[in-house]
Amino acid sequence: MSSTPSAAAAADSLRRNSKRPKYSRFTQQELPACKPILTPRWVISAFLLVTIVFVPIGLASLFASRDVVEIVDRYDADCAPSGSTRDKVRYIQSIADKTCNRTLTVPKHMKQPIYVYYQLDNFYQNHRRYVKSRSDQQLRSQSHENDTGSCKPEDNANEMSIVPCGLVAWSMFNDTYSFFTNNSQQLPVNKSGISWKSDRDHKFGKDVFPKNFQNGTLIGGAHLNKSIPLSLQEDLIVWMRTAALPTFRKLYGRIEVDLQAGDVINVIMQNNYNTYSFNGKKKLVLSTTSWLGGKNNFIGIAYLAVGGLCFLLAMTFTIIYMVKPRRLGDPSYLSWNRNPGGH
Amino acid sequence: MNLDETKSVDLQEDELPGLHNSSSHRSISSNSLRANSIKEVGFVDLRSKEVRYGSRGGSNSMSMSRREISDEDSRLVYINDPLKTNEKFEFSGNSVRTSKYSVLTFLPRNLFEQFHRVAYVYFLVIAILNQLPQLAVFGRFVSILPLTMVLLVTAIKDAYEDWRRHRSDWIENNRLSSVLVNDSYEQKKSKDIQVGEIIKFSANETIPCDIVLLSTSDPTGVAYIQTINLDGESNLKTRYAKQETVSRIHNNEKINGVIKCEKPNRNIYGFLAYMEIDQKRVSLGPSNIVLRGCVLKNTSWAVGVVVYTGMETKVMLNNSGAQSKRSHLEARMNREIIFLSFFLVGLCTVVSICAGVWLRRHRDELDIMQFYRRKDYSGEDVDNFKYYGWGLEIFFTFLMSVIVFQIMIPIALYISMELVRVGQAYFMIRDDNMYDETTDSRFQCRALNMNEDLGQIKYVFSDKTGTLTENKMEFQYASISGVDYGGEKTDFYEEQGGYFAQVDGLVLRPMMKVRVDQELVRLSRSGNDTKTGKQIYDFFLALAACNTIVPIVVDTSDPVEKLIDYQGESPDEQALVYAAAAYGFMLIERTSGHIIIDIHGDRQRFNVLGMHEFDSERKRMSVILGCPDNTVKVFVKGADTTMFNVIDKSLNLDVVRATESHLHSYSSIGLRTLVMGMRELSSHEFEQWRSSYEAATSALMGRAGLLRKVAINLEKNLSVLGASGIEDKLQQGVPEAIESLRTAGIKVWVLTGDKQETAISIGYSSKLLTSKMTQIVINNNSKESCRKSLEDALITSNAPRTSTSGDDGSLIALIIDGTSLVYILDSELEEQLFELASKCAVVLCCRVAPLQKAGIVMLIKKRTDDLTLAIGDGANDVSMIQKADVGIGISGQEGRQAVMASDFAMAQFRFLVPLLLVHGHWNYQRMGYMILYNFYRNAVFVLVLFWYALFTAFTLSTAINEWSSVLYSVIYTSVPTIVVGILDKDLGRTSLLQYPQLYGAGQRQESYNSKLFWLTIADTLWQSIVAFFVPLLAYWKSDIDGPSIGDLWTLAVVFLVNLHLAMDVTTWNWIIHASIWGSIVATIICVIIIDCIVILPGYWAIFHLAGDGMFWICLIGIVVASLIPRFVVKLLVQHYRPSDVQIAGEAEKFGAIIESRSAEIEMNQHHT
Question: What 3 state SS string does B428-448 have?
Fold first, then answer.
């Protein structure tokens, strides 16, 4: 085609409004990038790194767990008359005195603070009906006293709102424990600060007092002192942090003296709480604590296993790479080079 | 069949059986005025109609067009009487509405349309279920949040688009036109135009509705229009006003008449009507109607009567979008999704049955059990509280578990996929390597749902003309009366700017210059006296006259110099006219009645007494000229196959033979050939012809058939003038592109309307064929012979060939022609053809009709799962573009119909290589990985929820906060998968182009297959077990509360899922870094925010947790332990069965070292 002046002018104007994509490394998908490739050196170093990190952590956890001293005493069966479940339920629902004496022996030196827990087995604090049956609004401020919509069936009693409402509060654990040394000296249990500070300060109101609580036909558990605001009812606060799993512990208090190995501790308890109706177990737990929490070997073993496995893998891959090395990026491994002619 | 389909087929169907010897075609729509190539226009929809490919059209002889337009199928338009026209029938006004909604209807209609997607219905059903009090798993607000968000975003997008349409509608509807009201023209808004009104418009005006031309500024009633808005073709087309009306307008007479025309239909190339004026019936056809959107050019004014308005105009009826094709990968994915839904049902069944068993076992305890409390004692009566009996409880549990586990079906994946495709399209459109400078066009994505299919193509069906070639014709050789000219050519520069003519002191030059043969120039100047001179004169006269080219005079900067631009629809004709001009036969003017040709400075006027336009059955056209010396001559131009049948061989056998041999040699070097013939008509013959011609043109129905009959009667006993060879140059880069595609394992089939010799020679020049290949040619005229040659061919193809490995010697090329295909397609021979074709590396189909092209595509599609791609540029490729899995239109010389029907459009064939090998590969790999990853991502979360359900007495309470479970797929994990789906590159562009074989990864489905799916599921299972049970066992018998361990699970799963992705990313650029690490940070922030809400049970949990060493140890342990199996499997596969992609990736990084090393080795070997 000829390029007369007019055509040239046209081409010029075309160039100005050209649709040519603006060049940028982004639009051409050529952004600077890093392409990590798994070279043998990287692979083996990675496995060894995992080994080096995991084995010490595993050992440390195991040692920590081993140092924790734990006394677990199941008392639900012994503290109720033997017989059928029905008898036990009848007993626990009666108004009889339910005091029960237990004796614990300290197996090893226990450094203070010694945490006192109660442990419930088979108690589904995470049951859908249960976890939802509470009103966090009501717990927080007096003005929401009548926010009991979510609390059914423990929302109202005698046509008045219950504070705190809901199944969770209603079913609060009410066994009590007192600890005595061999020479009948009481071991004081510190029950303050067993709940989260954040809960005391923000979640449970200072102006909210128990009202109309446990006034219904069926008593679920503990009664609350009507003159103490919820923010100071630490047992309630602890109970209201519903447990994640059907077997759980809740903090009861702290014993702030050391216990020596062989010490015998007498526990006088009020066995009030009904777990008999659903074959739930009740246990009293005294435990020291480590940086990692309570006595649990699982994490230590798991870490050692993973660390060990990675060490094995590092060795295996070292052997694999030595026995049958493959040159990275060698075009002769490309499928069309391996079996020529076969497309 | 509905009306317009019938009509569109039948407009060509009124053929006379037996008059054509080669393959017959069942064309879809009206033929265009092409000279040589068989171009039929197929814009009308092919979808709803059952077509038998390759079947013979003659059987369908019942023709609509021969019948009267019955009253119920027609509309009556009273010219210049809009009141009467509109009194009986409610024709729509001329206002158009492309917008979908109004302010009032927006909400209901938009919602209705959005809920057409299954995904949204699923969301909605789940959300509704959740609103039932028995099933309220999530809070009201939380449960509808994701759905509302998606709906809102889509609605805003739709509203914006609709607003833009409203605006453009408003502009369209308020454009002014002059309308004849009470005998004077008044300006009227476009929306007020009514059927029956007469409107007048001037040059460069856009026509606001469909009108029948009544008159134009040209005394003969010609108007030139540009249809660029209609079909994108920029060349000028001619439309004619009927003589009966032209004069009346010129004399300012009133016109009263009635037009009876078809009901509005979508066929933009057909129009059937007649006009009753002065008790005379005048027939009207497609050449008398000007459609909405056309622009009047080179005509100072035109007047017409409105026949179709507004939404009933042909262009608006054609406005429905392209049909949607489904992505292959998505179809496969749906299979896996069905499995996942079974899996979901399985999980829900397990939970609900266990819940039932649990309730049964505890049935006596439930009443007072602290955490169940079946009885409500607060009222007078002791009732059951929220307990509906054993059976219903199981049922409700089932439904609740469906709600909780809903994201097991990765519905959000469909939305992410759409986003990813938009992103991928963004990069494809902006790819500098797919931008064509000469046409200034970018790559276009017209369909947005099949990007990934581009990475799995196994068959490419390509048109030839305009696709492999440029469709820019250049006249190369002429054979005149048996003498071949065109051996030695001089460059046109030597000719002092080529031939020019002087008219009224102006210098006229043709716009395009043609290289000329000096000898022929000399001979043509020698005049009309010698016998050779006479022959040359007639030959060039035929070239200059026998066409439909319109010369347009273009100004240049020099006021005395003008350029002549030959506008026409056929590039071949353009080339011929330019060639004639270069040899001194310059076409200067064409009206419907005469043409003026400047012959060596002598302006001669020829009356055009009649013209038989090109049609695909005759494959020739003719023009009847009244010459200045008062003789009447008919000039015929056409394809050699049909021309030699009408040439009188007894006249000049030597010349015919010589011409035939020249033709053979032209076509064997890849030229397109045409034969010219001529006959002088005696006055008796002329009169005879004229009466039958006039009878035919004024026939109301079956006009096309009658005209064809007249033409066939006329075009006989011709004397041969000569033949022309026109070169259609291969597009730049075609041989390289074809080689790349073939190396990539893609079978390239070329389907062309050209002759066998031309096709084969193009095959050679485009490297499709090589001389070492075994060629099998099937070229038969009956079914039996087809069967025989197929059987022979199969034996040949099965015969063991001595092949040196990697050589082309082992390859077979199949060359088959359209006539044979008529017998093979749709018969039992199809199977054999498929078997044969699948063994061939190359298949060349020549002389195929448009529908046969689609038939060939279906031949493969029906029998294999392999993906097919069709690429073409012309209207004749529309059918195959629509049938193939992926259709690509070349936006080239031949208008835009192929583009309109296509899924992707580009300017050059060679762009297919970056499109498939680079973008296709990337898109496939990205999408395949993304789907698997999304399955994994959702399933791992669902499984963690499921495991927890086993520890909550099967009541589906979740430790993970409900906000977190909703945000999980919205914020925590969604962005990285989309970003990686758009941006990750497993290999760089250079490697993909260097090793086309890497494309095989997509063909072998390496990124998405059942094996990978099951591996992913197994991996998911393991990872969910680790993520769930490590915290469970670590915190067993501790005082951990639900929300705390829930936060741990949330963070663990999110870390895990994002690091899993990070492990699989190959190319880390800053965006990917930002998205992955950003997601993790965003998750932490969200968890912290949620835990700062006082009224949620989980208040402050994360802060307590973070102060606990166990939390961190669990988190690290989970991530490492979960990913080890995947990592090990990956390493083993990489070591023992490295994939090509992986090796190429390594080579990219270490390649330089290896290459230099191997070069060294080679050097050393050479030295030794």
Answer: HHCCHHHCECCCCECCEECCC
How wide is the angle at C-alpha B672 spanned by C-alphas B670 and B677, nearest 5°?
140
Residues in Cβ contact with B1077 at an 8 Å cutoff, skipping those fewer than 6 apart: none
Interface of A with B in 74-93 (CB under 8 A): none
DSSP state of B916: I
List the beta bridge partners of residue B680.
B633
* Cα dihedral B1102, B1104, B1107, B1113 sign: negative
C-alpha distances in angstroms, B1145 versus A317, A333, B293, B1150? Answer: 21, 12, 52, 9
Across the interface, of A36, A218, A245, the residue whose CB is closest to B951 is: A245
Q: What is the reported pLDDT for B41?
A: 35
The first and second tokens of residue B416, run together, are 């992410």
Nearest CA-CA partner of B211 in B107, B94, B318: B94
Average pLDDT, chain B: 81
3-class SS of residue B211: strand
Q: Do B806 and A341 touch (CB under 8 A)?
A: yes
Find how far residue B758's CA is from the centre of its chain. 27
With CB atoms and an 8 Å threshold, state whether A171 touches B563. no
Q: Which of B475, B484, B600, B611 is nearest to B537 (CA)?
A: B600
**A123 with A282: CB under 8 angstroms?**
no
Q: The tokens 């369209």 sit on which residue?
A: B172
Residue type present at position A17 = N
CB B883 within 8 A of CB B870: yes
pTM: 0.82
DSSP A179-235: EE-TTSPEEPEE-TT-S-HHIIIIIS-TT---BSTT-SSS--S----TTS-GGG-HH
Q: Is A332 on the interface with B (CB under 8 A)?
A: no
pLDDT at residue number A256 = 93
In whole angstroms, what separates CA B945 from the centre of its chain? 45
Residue of A nearest to B1000 (CA): A343
Residue B1015 has pLDDT above 90, yes or no: yes
Whether residue A296 and residue B1097 make contact (CB cut-off 8 A), yes or no, is no
Question: Is B817's pLDDT higher than 70?
Answer: yes
pLDDT score at A4: 44
**Range from A6-10, A19-23, B702-706 that averages highest in pLDDT:** A19-23
CA nearest to A320, candidates B523, B844, B1128: B1128
CA quadruple B735, B741, B747, B752: dihedral, nearest 10: -40
Cross-chain Cβ contact A6/B555 below 8 Å:
yes
Angle, CA A91 vertex, CA A85 and CA A93 arms, to 5°: 100
